[in-house]
Amino acid sequence: MNLKLNAKQLRKESAKFKIRPSKLRKNEIYIILDNVLDTYNIGSIFRLADAVAAKKIYLCGGTETPPNPRIKKASINTTEWVDWEYKETAVEVIEDLRGKVKEIQIIAIEQSDKSVRYDKFEYKYPLALVVGHESEGVSKEVLEMVDAVVELPMFGVNISLNVMVSLAIVLYEVIKRTRIPSK
Q: Which class does domain 21-153+161-178 fall in?
């Protein structure tokens, strides 16, 4: 069945599908927002986390949290079933994850002299992807803690992409490389 809904229907129809998030198989992916301020980016990242069946989103620092009408609109209600938590800093999240999740790979998506191309990196589960502030990027403290930094090559005049777009590209690269093919 090919079901096509408009944006208004998507926001209202989710309850009709009786989605049971606890029954969905989650990928060992954690998403950390290090001071991401734009509420539409935050909402879109919730929608993206649902699309890739990420285990959890961490909202840190100045990142707004649900309930927020702009986040709700952009997320198309995925804030209701994507697991999330607010922490004061991304540093705190990384320390927590390293203590709780065995052999977690923590990767920042950022331009840096330490970065490698996103499509040349070897991803493995469990992993956490960190994205940062729209103008200032991932904080220096976090960059010093991560296992790797990946970036997307830019070929035009602009030097960066939107934080949600960059995260989406990297997440789908992770899924492509780590997903067990279906029979």
A: alpha beta
